Amino acid sequence: MISKRAGIGWTTGGHTGGDVVLYTYAPNNDRPFGVIDNTDVAKYMARVLDLDLDSVSKQLFVPAKQAFTAKGATYKLDLTDAKNPKILVTKGNTKLELQVYKNIALVNGKKTTLEGVIVYNGVEAFVPQMAVDLIQ
């Protein structure tokens, strides 16, 4: 309604195309400046904090189906409740339930907190390596 009244155009359904001001402080004066790509913000932060984003991504975003089936487990992505999708994994007597967009795993009904959240992009689910390690 606001867009129609104001005659505003949007680049996407949830974002504008305008520049965003970023203020930073760094003791060594290593600061980004000028117009930068938004993906460069993460690269800057990783450099300043001495983080390896690639290794963190590999640890937190493991392709779920591939990882669990490689361990000989059965994998099912349950989308019957669209608001609460979950992954069901079974191997032997071990039953693992992972709720998408949460960091909780239920192993045979026992709650375990994971290092990261389960992600589903509409095509494929990704889980932290810690979730895969729960299946022996």
In brief:
By secondary structure, the chain is an alpha+beta fold. It is 26% helix and 24% strand.
Question: How would you describe the overall organization of this protein?
Answer:
- This protein is an alpha+beta fold and 136 residues long.
- The protein is 26% helix and 24% strand.
- Strand 2 and strand 3 (86-91) form a beta hairpin.
- The protein starts with a helix and ends with a helix.
- The mean pLDDT is 88.
Characteristics of this structure?
136 residues, alpha+beta, five-stranded antiparallel beta sheet, three-stranded antiparallel beta sheet, flat
What's the structural blueprint in terms of helices and strands?
Blueprint: H1 2-6, H2 38-49, H3 53-60, E1 62-63, H4 64-70, E2 74-78, E3 86-91, E4 94-99, E5 104-107, E6 110-113, E7 119-120, E8 125-127, H5 129-132
Antiparallel strand pairs: 1-8, 2-3, 3-4, 4-5, 5-6, 7-8
Let me know the largest β-sheet: 5 strands, antiparallel
Question: How many beta-strand elements?
Answer: 8
Query: Which structural class fits the helix and strand makeup?
Result: alpha+beta
H/E series, N to C? Answer: HHHEHEEEEEEEH
Helix content: 25-40%
Rg calc? 20 Å
* Neighbour order of strands in the largest sheet: 2-3-4-5-6
Shape: flat
**Mean of residue pLDDT?**
88
Low-confidence stretches: none
Strand content: 15-25%
